[in-house]
UniProtKB/TrEMBL annotation:
Keywords linked to the UniProt accession: DNA-binding
Originating organism: Paenibacillus pinisoli
GO MF annotation: an example: DNA binding
SUPFAM superfamilies for this protein: Winged helix' DNA-binding domain (SSF46785)
PANTHER family in the record: HTH-TYPE TRANSCRIPTIONAL REGULATOR SRLR-RELATED, TRANSCRIPTIONAL REGULATORY PROTEIN-RELATED
Full protein name: Transcriptional regulator
Length: 221
């Protein structure tokens, strides 16, 4: 007796089924509901329910494939946004490239210049968001910028007009752990954007539980 379960097996959770759908489409390309149903041993109706949710999430889209005879064939394909759902190894690549530069005496000095150049690009990108703002708003804008980059930033303020910016995640911790220039770049960027003294008091890449920056300045009138 299977207690109403198809084939006597526990049904797969929805999230797990959608992961299998995405993996199939990643490896095989466009697939129809019928092809997916046959591959996953599900009904077409069940597949279409999952595809509706995946389309709503922006992970898949429907494409019409014209045929010489008859109506177009409709299949599903992954969107460009779905690429972010699959594993990436950017940090390892970045570390390999930096190590290659670092180990060559002729290019070792380029690393400092690269991080300095990165700081300037980030400063030029974000300075317009600081224009005309008081210190409180600049600190809030900086926290928003960092959160957009995945740093999980929070702000504290004491009774003397000083702020502390805490970052509970470091998306580049693999690079920062080996190259202190990454942390120096962030500190220089904060000082440039806020235009007040900023000091780092704790660092994730040095074993801290977070990256913390004290921001010492008075509110603009």
């Amino acid at each position: 007796m299977d207690n109403g379960k198809h084939g006597g097996r526990e049904p797969k959770p929805a999230s797990s089924t959608r992961e299998r759908i995405l993996l199939l489409m990643k490896t095989r390309g466009r697939m129809s509901a019928n092809e997916l149903a046959a591959e996953l041993n599900l009904t077409e109706m069940a597949i279409r329910r999952h595809m509706y949710e995946l389309e709503h999430a922006g992970s898949v889209q429907t494409v019409a494939i014209r045929r010489q005879v008859g109506r177009p064939l409709h299949k599903f394909e992954l969107t460009a946004g779905a690429d972010e759902l699959f594993p990436k190894n950017y940090h390892a690549l970045a570390l390999d490239l930096l190590t290659e530069l670092d180990e060559d005496p002729e290019t070792a000095g380029l690393i400092d210049r690269m991080f300095e150049g990165r700081m300037r690009k980030l400063r030029d990108r974000y300075l317009p968001r600081m224009k005309g703002l008081g210190l409180k708003e600049r600190v809030e804008a900086l926290a928003a910028i960092q959160n957009e980059g995945g740093y999980m930033a929070q702000i504290e303020k004491d009774g003397e007009g000083r702020y502390t910016l805490h970052e509970y995640n470091c998306p580049i911790t693999g690079v920062a752990g080996k190259y202190e220039q990454a942390c120096g770049c962030e500190l220089a960027l904060f000082r440039s954007l806020l235009e007040v003294p900023v000091e780092r008091t704790e660092c994730l890449s040095k074993g801290g539980s977070r990256c913390s920056y004290t921001i010492d300045g008075k509110e603009n009138p």
